[in-house]
Amino acid sequence: ALSAAQNATAQPGIINTLPGGETHMHLSQGMFYFEAFSKVSFNQIQQLPDSQWQFHPNSSLFLGTSQSYTWIKIPLQSMPGAPTEWIMTLDWPLVKSIDWYHYRESTQTLLSSGQFNDWQMPPDGPDEFPFAIPLALDSDSTTLLYLRILPSEKALLPITLWPAESFSDHQLQRNWYLGLFYGVLFAMFGYNLSLFIFLRHKAFAAYCFYVATMAGYTLIMNGAGIAWLWSDYPALLEYAYRILVPIAFFAALTFIRQFLQLKHRGVFLNRSSQIAGYLWLGMIILAPVISTSILIPLIDAFGLINCLFAISVSGYLWFKGDRSAKYLTLSWSVLVVSTVILILGLNDVIPYVIELHYLQNIGVTIEVLLLSMALAERFNREREMRSEAQDIALQMSTEAAKAKESEMAAQQRLLGIERRVKEELSLKVNEQTRELKVAMQKLQIMNKGMQSVTVPSSLKTPSLT
Q1: Helix residue spans in 115-239 (DSSP H)
Q2: In this structure, what is the dihedral angle of CA atoms 150, 155, 160, 164, given to the nearest 10 degrees?
Q3: Which of 126, 311, 342, 425 has the fewest CB atoms within 10 Å of its CB?
Q4: Rounded distance, CA 40 to CA 55, Å?
Q5: 95-104 and 31-35: which strand pairing?
């Protein structure tokens, strides 16, 4: 709690002074905040005792999963020579409604006010992205900006201030960057989808599923989805974080299981990855009914465990010699490091700067490119292995054919020898048969000749026949 001496109007040191010559600024002296449990009006909040306001010394305020109204009070003053027209942006789209009041306490004058309700950006507002508030500041007096905020899921309040003349350049650069980012995602998705259609390889389908979920997640987190696609669907945005984050992790786990073939890597890796997948599916199904105060911390904690699991598994398989795991380890490391740096900034561990939002998208871009390279490397390696297997099979088939030909030739030679032996034997038998017939015929002739010769009866002897 703050004492009265810490009130911005009573203590000039607690004033965010905005100098000239800068393209954008962050709160140099911080902000005050008060968490209400009902919709307190602006008149009531002005009468709030100073001791009820709490001080936060940074430009990003983390309020956890609170679903109550939070009032923010920011003392502002433009330095001499600085622009008088500024744009304040709240760089966190998961805010359901914002009421803002720009007030000069010295004259008790309400300079301007407005409202964002159910993610609807006013057509005459300074930006189509959530959330931008125009402010007129001068160097003569301090003004107070009051914000009444109702978050939808997770309350993070990063604030950036832009001179009006440089804000249009920021919009142009942001839109160009986001167009390039989603162009890369679309190109990688279309390329790998075509490979899946023609090759029917499940790893390409898992990759496309993951890229699509990452595109949906980033569209929510950077506000592009609200600006370009689904601002008319507040019911979707109400559950965006608690649904899209588990879907993205489930898709990542599906890709890892398919790409690293974990079901063939042993019981532990197979079962643990299956259990993780079932847990993410359970979170997706129960997201509309479980309180955010329970589900959001559970998603964040299990998401961290999931990232460590993925890096550990891929790193272990890389150590074991799996070349595909190398790309997966590097890609996940880049994304995890960029996300951790963003979370540290949003949670006030390191100073928050707007560039941190781009860092995570850069990590996603590098990741999908490395994963696409990993898929190409794996497919080429599998093709080479299939080609080598086909060459070996062809060589073995050729050798088998040659052996069969040799066997058939040997059989033909044996048949030839057998045929010649039979022919020679047949000739010898026929020759011997003829000789025997000739001998028998001669013997018969001799017998007949002997019978026809006349001899004296006294010399006759009994016939041999």
Answers
A1: 164-199, 202-221, 224-228, 234-238
A2: -30
A3: 425
A4: 19
A5: unpaired
> Which residue from 438, 442, 443 is spatially nearest to 465, judged by alpha carbons?
443
Which of 256, 182, 251 minimizes the C-alpha distance to 222?
182
Residue 8 has pLDDT above 60, yes or no: no
SS3 of 239, please? coil
Specify which of 65-69, 99-103, 285-289, 360-364 reaches the highest per-range mean pLDDT.
99-103
The DSSP secondary-structure symbol of 121 reads P
Strands (E) across 118-233 are located at 132-136, 143-151, 155-163
Q: Can you read off the two tokens belonging to residue 200?
A: 């029917």
Residue of 183, 105, 165, 152 lying closest to 368 (CA atoms): 183
Listed in sequence order, the DSSP H helices in 320-452 are 323-346, 355-452
pTM, full prediction:
0.77
Main-chain phi, psi angles of 266, to 5 degrees:
120, 160
Q: For residue 17, what is the DSSP state?
A: E
Selection from 57, 29, 53 nearest residue 40 by Cα: 53
Amino acid letter for position 290: I
Do 258 and 203 touch, CB atoms closer than 8 A? yes
Paired residues of 150 in beta bridges: 97
Q: From CA 169, how far away is CA 29, in angstroms rounded? A: 26
Tokens of 237: 């945005």
E strands along 248-301, which residues?
A: none
Tokens linked to 269: 């890796």
